[in-house]
């Protein structure tokens, strides 16, 4: 079934605009959901050649929720009250965010048919705020890759360029948002798994300070990781972050109240950066940044400067090799052994990248104790703190490369071309992304915002890095970047 022009426009509405139309009575949640489901039917395609963003679509359950939301909005209008923040908004949840009674396999054959006993905390928060979970999104096995494909679910592709990956591990979420198949989406991030797909799909992704958004034990105790929101706008991301945030009984590391992470006066767009001192680090040490990524990042910095920000060049003593050694030493003490234990006896069924991750993590941590790993973390954290002294935020690219191949395994690393045109081989393809240092410094909030389009037609992104727990500043700067950066229409309007 093809969408009419008006229906197609509905699928690119942001949540704030949809709420305004619900409030006025010009649009009903069931109409938005119907348009979204039609968009999925017309755009998602199959696992062989399509976008393939979902593990399942929950159409019947979602339609029942939307009908209830229609009634609740009508009652709210009659009573003059404001309904819950996400009432009637279609939300796609990452498959790892379990829904009670439904499968939660994380793409692993060993978990095929396993059912979630209870809602994941972020699912609980979405439903509690009135969100309609209409679909569940793909990820690589155990969310351990920056591409999104698996034997279980096939290849997920980037709506902007079907030869490209939407990134990972929350690639299905980014693809769904960019293609107009969801209004909001949940994600998770242990080395960039929210920000990388945001960067590659022209969407917005937020890595909150560790503990700000509750996770699911026991791996919620890994201080590199965190669950979070993705959306098509900065304001929607802030709205969604507010819903997801705050203390939850199941996660003893969670803290704070459920509130949007924005300044008291709200987001001011370009006016909000006047007088701010923003550091600029295009290479974060020695990342081989592609020419178009560099150009788009520098263009964003120039626009912020024209809006009244003070741009301060920042040099960091980092190398991709040291960052990789630090992060994989950490993974070798927590995530790697957990994955090895879970998949024991089914190694022959794993995707190649999963087995390599387990092996890489074990090799990197060999001879490095957990206290020594903590010391490696502390060194990177201290260097970042020193570089950011006297600054309000730091600006850096989200990805160093223009794209990853949709079905790529990158078992032998990745060849890339830096901004000077030199070919550079990175031993591990994770080194093509500039996100993991801020999982080491995981109390720092980080927002990835679109910065332009690369030479291969895939979006690029910039990260806004804040001081520990200073969420408001990264959203203020992110809103300014969004206003100042011209982006083409989402591919939902072009297909």
TrEMBL record:
Signal peptide range: none
Gene3D superfamilies: Amidase signature (AS) domain
Start and end residues of each Amidase domain: 31-474
Organism: Leucobacter chromiireducens subsp. chromiireducens
Taxonomic classification: Bacteria, Bacillati, Actinomycetota, Actinomycetes, Micrococcales
InterPro entries referenced in this protein's UniProt entry, alphabetically: Amidase, Amidase_dom, AS_sf
Family of this protein: Belongs to the amidase family.
Name used for this protein in its record: Amidase
Pfam families according to UniProt: Amidase
């Amino acid at each position: 079934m093809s969408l009419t022009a008006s229906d197609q426009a509905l699928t690119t509405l942001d949540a704030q605009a949809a709420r305004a139309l619900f409030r006025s009575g010009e649009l009903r949640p069931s109409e938005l959901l119907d348009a979204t489901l039609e968009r999925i039917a017309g755009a998602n395609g199959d696992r062989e050649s399509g976008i393939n963003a979902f593990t399942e679509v929950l159409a019947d359950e979602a339609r029942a929720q939307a009908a209830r939301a229609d009634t609740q909005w009508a009652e709210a209008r009659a009573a003059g009250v404001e309904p819950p923040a996400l009432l009637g908004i279609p939300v796609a949840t990452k498959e790892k965010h379990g829904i009670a009674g439904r499968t939660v396999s994380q793409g692993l054959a060993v978990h095929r048919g396993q059912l979630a006993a209870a809602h994941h905390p972020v699912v609980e928060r979405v439903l509690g705020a009135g969100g309609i979970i209409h679909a569940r999104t793909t990820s690589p096995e155990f969310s351990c890759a920056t591409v999104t494909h698996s034997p279980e679910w096939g290849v997920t592709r980037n709506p902007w360029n079907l030869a490209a990956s939407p990134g990972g591990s929350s690639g299905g979420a980014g693809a769904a948002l960019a293609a107009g198949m969801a209004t909001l989406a949940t994600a998770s991030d242990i080395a960039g798994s929210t920000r990388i797909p945001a960067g590659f799909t022209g969407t917005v992704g937020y890595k909150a300070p560790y503990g700000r958004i509750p996770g699911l034990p026991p791996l919620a105790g890994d201080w590199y990781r965190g669950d979070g929101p993705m959306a098509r706008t900065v304001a929607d991301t802030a709205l969604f972050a507010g819903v997801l945030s705050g203390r939850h009984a199941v996660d003893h590391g969670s803290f704070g109240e459920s509130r949007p992470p924005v300044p008291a006066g709200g987001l001011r767009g370009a006016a909000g950066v006047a007088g701010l001192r923003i550091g600029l680090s295009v290479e974060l040490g020695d990342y081989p940044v592609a020419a178009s990524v560099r150009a788009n990042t520098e263009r964003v910095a120039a626009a912020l400067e024209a809006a009244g920000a003070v741009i301060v060049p920042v040099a960091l003593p980092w190398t991709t090799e040291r960052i990789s050694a630090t992060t994989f030493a950490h993974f070798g003490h927590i995530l790697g052994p957990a994955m090895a234990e879970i998949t024991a006896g089914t190694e022959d069924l794993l995707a190649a990248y999963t087995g390599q991750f387990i092996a890489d993590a074990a090799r990197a941590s060999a001879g490095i104790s957990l206290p020594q790993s903590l010391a490696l973390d502390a060194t990177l954290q201290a260097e970042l703190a020193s570089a950011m002294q006297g600054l309000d935020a730091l600006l850096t690219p989200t990805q160093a490369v223009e794209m990853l191949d949709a079905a790529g395994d990158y078992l032998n690393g990745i060849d890339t071309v830096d901004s000077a045109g030199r070919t550079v081989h990175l031993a591990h393809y994770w080194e093509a992304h500039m996100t993991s240092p801020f999982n080491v410094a995981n109390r720092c909030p980080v927002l990835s915002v679109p910065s332009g389009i690369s030479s291969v037609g895939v979006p690029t992104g910039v990260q806004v890095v804040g001081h520990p727990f200073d969420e408001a500043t990264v959203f203020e700067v992110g809103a300014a970047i969004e206003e100042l950066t011209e982006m083409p229409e989402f591919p939902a309007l072009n297909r």
